[in-house]
Amino acid sequence: MQIENSPSNSITDYIRELLERGSRAVLATVVESRQLIVGAKLLVSEDDERIGDLGNADLNRAVIEKARAFFSAPEATKASKVVDFAPELQHLSDSLILFERIEAEPRLVIAGAGHVGASLARLAALVGYRVTLIDDRAEFVARDLFSASTEQSIELVAAASWIDAMRDAIGSGRGVSVAIVTRGHKQDEDCLRAAANSNPDYIGMIGSKRRTNIVLDKLREEGIADEQLKRVHAPIGLDIGAVSPEEVALAILAEIVNERHGSSGGSLSAWRRS
Asked: CA–CA distance from 52 to each of 33, 114, 199 (Å)?
């Protein structure tokens, strides 16, 4: 679907609309070329809406195909010469196109504001996540506990109902990670029940293997599909030998970031010891 450019429908305005409705897009920009206008842009949404023009119809078509594939690429930005993705366009082969994935800032919904949940909220906010911290104990989500300048963006929710609060916070689930770090089985069940039915990008739940299996078996008996429950990272986090609440929070956030970028989670220096 092509969208015509107009003063009231610029690429900037359209990006704002996309982000408001939780959608994503890829923006392609000419950054080097002898034949094209540097700065020319073409935006492709994940619903295949397009706005803009790079100045060449054949290049537009090739960039649209490249943009569709770029939605699942691990990197958020990449500069590619035309020869690398459309070698048939020889007269434009040296032109350089910058691809940028446009999406809302990642969100993290944390169920449980105990030591681990509070530490995770602070750490995630520091690295750029939009954080919602939920607890059914209002005193655990009081603003004066999160008064530092880096903590002001954390949304604090005192839940009358875990299920309702989780559903409201997760929304469509797109771009959302969920960390369940509550104080007991009942709270875990309610939060996981809400999360599993909301389809977020990531779900993790704290606890021992025994505790997490109890919760997962209970939800399986209730009829939640195995495919949904297999997506749950439980016990949550990467194995970094974490002991303190802050270290556990770091292990959880490391796994969330790892999943978001589709990385391996291995040591970057492993190649030197192989």
From this structure: 17, 48, 33
Say which CATH topology domain 107-261 has.
Rossmann fold (3.40.50)
Cite the residue boundaries of each domain of the chain with CATH code 3.40.50.720: 107-261
Of the candidates 174, 177, 82, the one whose C-alpha atom is nearest the C-alpha of residue 131 is: 177
As to burial, measured by CB atoms within 10 angstroms (0-12 exposed, 13-18 middle, 19+ buried), residue 19 is middle
pLDDT tens digit at each of 274 positions of the chain:
554 443 335 888 889 888 877 788 999 999 999 999 999 999 999 889 999 999 999 999 999 999 999 988 878 899 999 999 999 999 999 999 999 999 888 999 999 999 999 999 999 999 999 999 999 999 999 999 999 999 999 999 999 999 999 999 999 888 899 999 999 888 999 999 999 888 899 999 998 888 888 889 988 998 888 888 989 999 999 999 999 999 999 999 999 999 988 788 888 888 787 7
